[in-house]
Amino acid sequence: MCEPRHFRVDYAINPWMDPTRPVDAAKAVAQWTALKQTYERLGHRVDLITPHPALPDMVFAANAATVIDGIVLGARFRAPQRAPEADLYRTWFLTHGYRTVVMPTHTNEAEGDFTWTGDLLLAGTGFRTDPGAHAEAQEVLGVPVVSLHLVDPRYYHLDVALFVLTEATPTTRATIAYYPAAFSPGARRLLRRLYPDAVIATEEDATCLALNAVSDGHNVILPTEATHLAAELLARGYEPHFADISELRKSGGGPKCCTMELRG
After folding, report:
1. Cβ(155)–Cβ(182) under 8 Å?
2. What would the pLDDT profile of 68-123 be if each residue is shown by its tens digit?
3. Choosing from 2, 208, 257, 258, which is the catalytic residue?
4. Is 157 noted as a catalytic residue in this protein?
5. Which residues is 221 bridged to in the sheet?
6. What architecture is domain 25-251?
7. Phi and psi at residue 114, in whole multiples of 5°?
């Protein structure tokens, strides 16, 4: 995670961002701190990277790398405003003992568009990550990749349209939640085939970034407004935990955007 010490909205690179709308950086830090403390209270370790004053979106750590089995595939941002973040995160991994750190040749916004299910890497495209980055991820990470086409500009990254509730095991398939209208017809058919028992989110869920959630297989951290999805998850045996992300949402970010998951 990266503290939003320098968080602001100086430019607009997605439909959520409006540079004329006031941003309270101190409130953003407080909300981020509460999210970090929730992870720690639930027993998770949180590693930190130092924020850079010229990079207001560096708080959205999920976009900077994908890590599976200790192999790191870095990011190549589409927006030039965020491009310098990639090298700062690459340096962090190299100085923290990661031996295999590969920087991509294709545009790739990491866990923004790559979601690990335990046996498949679901990979979004349509707005940010190039389709060619999917084959590159498969080659670098050594896992099978399933491409999913996004069609709604509000849900420009996969991680605002879908998240994994429980990862697959050798004997069980993963459980996911997703918002069907964010995907092309073919991607919707594919998701129904792969995950017939998925939690189907509503437009109400999607518009408060409820799909930008983080699950450890039991505890699910999601935005405060996501009461409908929380009720669905509670009925399935999950334990929802709410996070106020009202300031961070002004850049189109939520709990998952602020969280890069380090696997191995």
Report:
1. yes
2. 999 999 999 999 999 999 999 999 999 999 999 999 999 999 999 999 999 999 99
3. 257
4. yes
5. 214, 241
6. 5-stranded Propeller (3.75)
7. -115, 120
152, two tokens: 């709604």
Sheet holding 114-116, edge to edge: 114-116, 121-125, 145-149
At 113, list the tokens.
Answer: 């568009």
Ordered by start, the domain boundaries in the chain are 25-251
CA distance 143 to 264: 14
Residue 145, strand partner residues = 121
Cβ neighbors of 99 (< 8 A, separation 6 or more) are 70
Question: Which secondary-structure segment (H or E) carries 6?
Answer: none
Contacts of 91 (CB under 8 A, 6+ apart): none
257 included as an active-site residue: yes
Per the document, the length of the chain is 264
To 10 degrees, the CA torsion angle through 112, 250, 225, 113?
-10
Token pair of 189 as six digits: 């058919």
Element (H, E) at 30: helix 25-41
* Among candidate residues 207, 209, 218, 208, the one with its CA nearest the CA of residue 240: 218
Give the model confidence (pLDDT) of 148-178 as tens digits.
Answer: 999 999 999 999 999 999 999 999 999 999 9
- Of the listed 134, 157, 241, 258, which one is catalytic? 157
